[in-house]
Amino acid sequence: MDSKRAWLVWGVGVFAYLIAVTHRTSFGVAGLVATDRFDATASALSAFTVIQLVVYAVLQIPVGVLVDRFGPRVMIATGAALMAVGQLQLAAATSVPGGVVGRIFVGAGDAMTFIAVIRLIPLWFPTYRVPVLTQLTGQLGQFGQLISLAPFAFVLHAAGWSPAFAGLAALGVLACVLSAALLRNAPAGSERPAVKSGIKETAVDLTTAWLQPGTRLGMWSHFATQFSGTVFVLTWGYPFLVSGQGLDTATASVLLSLFVVVGIICGPFLGSWVGRHPLRRSTMVLAVTLATAAAWAAVISHSGPSPLWLLVVLILVLAIGGPASMIAFDFARTFNPSHRIGTATGIVNVGGFVAALISMYMIGIILDLLNSVGFSTNGLYSLDAFRVAFSFQFIVLGIGFVAVAVTRRKVRRGMAERGEMVPPLRVVIADNRRRRAQFKQEQEDRRAARKG
């Protein structure tokens, strides 16, 4: 463990995930072009990404079970191949149904990637590295979004729809070849033979993982923190910034790229913070959820287009939701045995993407409804219509916040029964102040002793 080979395996896994994120987010910058190519309404446009996320979410638990059974290598390579097929289909599509078929393949391949890469980390690295590497995996993978925002967007507008998506398919083939050639499920000599579990055993593992309150706390944490940024990046952020807020395409692309920058900066800090304060993980989740709601309230309630600084604040807060959502996978890891981590991770990963697909589709439905009744006087993607449609997110944020708070209480009750007490936050803060004051006094006493 923790060898050069371990870092190579992790690096290939991160590359495969980076390419998966490129596939996932590519449609976000192609939305306006897709509207013209497919003559699509707002709800039809959202259907591309919603169906992709439905496939992703539905496959999370089956993929988690398969990762535990067959190992990460097969799943990562297969996922990359499926995404390549999906992008080739999208490159050739000229109708909404044909494009949706391509996104179904992309969603299926994407579903296989992240869980499998996360599964590699505890197999190749010691426990103390796992929280930080989990954060780094999630955030380095977001560089795939930059590929969507810059090279892919450039090729899309310069060369056209088909060459742009065919290029993405080539990246998928590269990720598949590298994964098949270089990945290994575990260090030599430590890999156990796969257990051929039947349907009954698989169902028992799945039920046991779900009944573990820590797993559900992870799922609701992912639900509350991840969805709003995903909705913004994958579908509605670009039209909102360009058509709603009146920004030029270059400025909108720069703002969206902040998601990656903030994630890279905040991810390692959050990872090390989780390692130092494992009993305060849910507190961070609740704080990020409240911050997301406050940022959206400020933008939606602003009269007229928001100033650039306020849009930057919104995107910074949404971007923090990405690293914060990775805390959810630490719940899956710490509350489940190693042979069930993949299954538990699949359950956790469902949360944020279910919230995202519901919000994404409802925003599209609301935009179409407002346009049909004449509310959107400035067109389908008017600012006033976006204000009303984006307000739907407050319902989802509220559900997530309450669910995290309730589930946390159950988790802490179980910990108390095992003799693991979680002191109130005010007690911890007071104790930290006391320790700092004591340390400061000891330093002053030492300095006085040396002078004496």
Feature tags:
452 residues, single chain, mainly alpha
Summarize this entry quickly.
The chain is mainly alpha-helical.
Parts with pLDDT < 50 across at least 5 consecutive residues? none
Overall helicity: over 70%
Mean pLDDT: 84
Note the main sheet: none
User: Quaternary arrangement of the chains shown?
Assistant: single chain
Helices, by number, come to 18
Question: How many beta-strand runs?
Answer: 0
Secondary-structure content class:
mainly alpha
Order of helices and strands: HHHHHHHHHHHHHHHHHH
| Distance between the ends | 52 Å
Q: Please tell me what the overall shape is.
A: globular
| Rg estimate, integer Å | 23 Å
Strand content: under 5%
Task: Describe the secondary-structure layout.
Layout: H1 4-29, H2 31-38, H3 42-70, H4 72-92, H5 96-124, H6 130-141, H7 143-158, H8 161-182, H9 199-211, H10 213-244, H11 249-276, H12 281-301, H13 308-325, H14 327-334, H15 341-372, H16 383-390, H17 393-417, H18 425-451
Helix pairs in contact: 1-4, 1-5, 1-6, 1-7, 1-8, 1-10, 3-4, 3-5, 3-15, 4-5, 4-8, 5-6, 5-15, 6-11, 7-8, 7-11, 10-11, 10-12, 10-13, 10-14, 10-15, 10-17, 11-13, 12-13, 12-16, 12-17, 14-15, 15-16
Characterization of this structure:
The chain is an all-alpha fold. It is 83% helix and 0% strand. The protein is built from 18 helices and no strands. Helix 5 (96-124) packs antiparallel against helix 6, helix 10 (213-244) packs parallel to helix 15 (341-372) and helix 14 packs antiparallel against helix 15. The termini are far apart.
